[in-house]
Amino acid sequence: MTIDVIKPGLATSVQDLGRTGYYHLGIPPSGGMDQRSLRAANLLLGNPEGAAVLECALMGPELRFDERRCVAACGAEMVPKVDGQPQPLNEVFEVPAGATLGFDFVRAGARLYLAVEGGFDVAEKLASRSTYALGGLGGVEGRPLKAGDRLATLPAVTPPRPGRRLPEALLPRFAKHYRLRVVPGIYDHRLEAASRERFYAETWAVASEADRIGYRLKGGSSLSFLEREPPFGAGDDPSNIVDACYPIGSIQVPSGSEPIILHRDAVSGGGYAMIGTVISADMDWVGQIQPHQQVRFEAVDLEQALAARREYRDTLEALRRMP
Amino acid sequence: MTTQTPSPARYSLAADEYLFVEVSEEMALDAFFRALSITQRLRALALPGIIEICPANASYQVRYEPDLISAERLIEILKSLDDEVAAQRERTLETRVIEVPVLYDDPWTRETLMRFRDRHQDPSGSDLDYAARINGFSTPAGFIEAHSASPWFVSMVGFVAGLPFMYQMVPRERQLQVPKYLRPRTDTPKQTVGYGGCFSCIYSVRGAGGYQMFGITPMPIYDPDGGQPHIDDSMIFFRPGDIVKHRAIDRATHDRLQADAEAGRFRPRVAPFTFDLDAFEGDPDATAIRVKEVLQ
Question: Looking at the structure, do residues A68 and A182 belong to the same domain, yes or no?
Answer without folding.
Answer: no
